[in-house]
């Protein structure tokens, strides 16, 4: 079980001369096996929320439960994937894919079997002995995903994992993330700043307010995962709905201010 439940979650960063409230009384619940996307203005606390769920940042107040248990540190079956891949350049692809298992003291024979299966699943089997520098950006993110699969993560947390990739590679990996979720049914929380990506990969899309972050709105997106959803009018309508909500939160101010004077904004 990897349902996630936050109530009154507040987290602040104490600096030398100031304090930054990142999250303030955030409430969110994600069901076991549910794919959720989180989107919101830059600096609103999205990464802080993921780090807290991963057990890497402690809440100042409020409740945060995974699988019904308070989060007190990193969990065995939670994996976190970041934009910068988190790979060790001096280790091979196979070694990088097995890092999570190594840290958790899984025996070598089982480790190599699980790594081989995970690399095969993400299409990197023939690169097992290569080094990260020999991989493209898309392949590096496949490798980060293989590490999570080798861990048999029940809860997959992803912080803008595809943001550094070109558009085609990004779409390719979005498809892979969807396939893997369909196959495994893990709980998935994806932070993204792409409206289309949120609608493609989130059965519910959570919109956060500007900092300190709280939930501003939730977009229900029941067709997520349906074959061909991206090509349907419903997909575009859902994206437009999400864009309107983000504009209301001021997340699209720079875009709106580019509208020529005298023209009504498209809301
Ligand atoms: N380690 C830190 N120390 C101090 N302030 C931080 C730290 N991490 C994040 N912040 C601040 O907390 C706020 C939320 O940050 P973050 O969670 O990274 O937002 P997001 O991922 O939505 O852009 C920002 O104002 C950021 O500057
Ligand atoms: Mg962030």
End-to-end Cα distance:
40 Å
Q: Calculate Rg over CA atoms.
A: 19 Å
Give the names of the bound compounds. Answer: adenosine-5'-diphosphate, magnesium ion
Low-confidence stretches: 255-267
Dominant shape = globular
Calculate the mean pLDDT score and round it. Answer: 92
Percentage of residues in strands: 15-25%
Give the helices and strands as they follow along the chain. EEEHEEEHHHHEHEHEEHH
Characterize the main sheet: 6 strands, mixed
Number of strands: 10
Q: For the largest beta sheet, what order do the strands appear in spatially? A: 6-7-8-3-9-10
Number of helices: 9
**Which structural class matches the secondary elements?**
alpha/beta
Helix content: 25-40%
Explain what this protein looks like in three dimensions:
The chain is of the alpha/beta class and 267 residues long. It has a domain at 84-153. It has helices at residues 46-53, 93-97, 99-103, 108-121, 137-150, 167-184, 195-201, 233-248, 253-256; strands at residues 4-14, 19-30, 35-39, 61-66, 69-70, 78-82, 155-159, 187-191, 204-208, 215-220. The strands form two sheets. Strands 6-7-8-3-9-10 form a six-stranded mixed β-sheet, sandwiched between helices. A four-stranded antiparallel β-sheet has the order 2-1-4-5, with helices on one face. α4 (108-121) crosses α5 and α7 packs across α8 (233-248). The longest helix has 18 residues, at 167-184. It starts with a strand and ends in an 11-residue tail after the last helix. The model is unreliable at 255-267 (pLDDT under 50).
